[in-house]
Amino acid sequence: MGIILGNGKRINEAGEQIAAEVLIEDGRIAAIAEQLARDGHEWIDCRGGLISAGFVDVHVHLREPGFEHKETIATGAHAAVKGGFTTIACMPNTRPAIDSVETVRYILDKAREAGKARVIPYGAITVRQLGKELTDFAALKEAGIFALTDDGVGVQSSATMKEAMKRAKELGLSIVAHCEDDDLITPGSALHDGVVAARHGLPGIPSESESIHVGRDILLAEQTGVHYHVCHISAKESVRLVRDGKRAGVNVTCEVTPHHLLLCDEDIPEDLNANWKMNPPLRGREDRAALIAGLKDGTIDIIATDHAPHTAEEKANGIVRAPFGIVGLETAFPLLYTHLVLTGELTLKRLIELLTVKPAAIFGLPYGRLEVGAPADLTVLDLETERTIDPSTFASKGTNTPFAGWVCKGWPTLTMVNGAIVHREAE
Ligand SMILES: NC(=O)N[C@@H](CC(=O)O)C(=O)O
Ligand SMILES: [Zn+2]
């Protein structure tokens, strides 16, 4: 007995939406056709919704262990499947950091218990993410990490980064980098060093604090041959450096977040609400344009949310003292579909590739494909119904989003991981 996702649509090679039904058996996609014989299988009515491969998000902060008041693996993995994400990679800036085999095992066990999205942990590059001593990459790989990063902080020392890349290359692991040169940032800076910070008389985070690491690391990746991936790219100069690196044949990829694609510093409300504070900051209007251009020309490889939950109390501390970060898992697809696809910036086919097959492919993961034989990680999307983003309905513990009140189409109605239904909207 299998399950049929019936009365749905899919996107064909030409990018058209065509009628489709999908049969799931033994956790895999067993058949895809315009119409399937019911044959006693369980039949689910997709009501004309788009059946897509489940989304893959390589940048998620799950906060457990250590910051369970912000998010737990269970609440974060639930938020993921509500947003159509079936595989999420969790960042190591937990307490303890993901720098030991024990912590990797703890996370994998908790994720299995939660039974929602598939969780693949990153391992920290350096012990406690302090930027000094490298972690035991081989042991972390054996325990099940998916790639290496110190996200949350930049690796300040070029020598440490180079040594990390050499060892990662030997083990076939990717180096994923939060690019931030601490020396170039005045402590307490919260906003991009641009017109808005200037108007408020606040010190700004300059673009070169990001791009200098991007440039440095592309040169080191060229030397070491490692696959190097840039987190949450935000500055136009960083996009240019990645474009040049790719042209020179360096194995460099990068991700952009929905918020950097849709917002710039000039959109931040005058009261400087801290739900607009994240790292890297919303940059200038030209940076946002460069990110969209980079996405269109293939310089930017994928979209990742940088889901970063914090409590409302922490975010009420004012723009300077509040922590950096916004949630993203439950709003990413509706925002991108409504504000990039329906506006004509990107095709739906391309948006879905940026969220599925592309992230899977650059990290060698067997997910993100709507194909017979592939693991049945699927999401069904209602492309018609308009809904308003309401943080009080989030499964995430975090309600810290600048997008509250935005009206979107493209809401996930059903999510399946390995053939099991892990989320279904009430009808
Ligand atoms: N992006 C953020 O603003 N914050 C992240 C850290 C990070 O991704 O750098 C967090 O852990 O809160
Ligand atoms: Zn980061």
From TrEMBL:
Function: Catalyzes the reversible cyclization of carbamoyl aspartate to dihydroorotate.
Protein name as it appears in the record: Dihydroorotase
Coiled-coil annotated spans: none
Residues involved in substrate binding: H61, L62, R63, N93, N279, H310, F324, G325
Keyword presence, S-adenosyl-L-methionine: no
Enzyme Commission code(s) on record: 3.5.2.3
Domain Amidohydrolase: 344-423
Amino acids binding Zn(2+) 1: H59, H61, D151, D306
Pathway info: Pyrimidine metabolism; UMP biosynthesis via de novo pathway; (S)-dihydroorotate from bicarbonate: step 3/3
A Pfam entry, by short name: DHOase
Membrane-crossing residue ranges in chain numbering: none
Alphabetical list of InterPro entries matching this protein: Amidohydro_3, DHOase, DHOase/Allantoinase_Hydrolase, DHOase_cat, Dihydroorotase_CS, Metal-dep_hydrolase_composite, Metal_Hydrolase
Similarity comment: Belongs to the metallo-dependent hydrolases superfamily. DHOase family. Class I DHOase subfamily.
Record keywords, A-Z: Hydrolase, Metal-binding, Pyrimidine biosynthesis, Zinc
NCBIfam families on file: PRK09357.1-2, pyrC_multi
GO terms (BP aspect): 'de novo' UMP biosynthetic process; purine nucleobase catabolic process
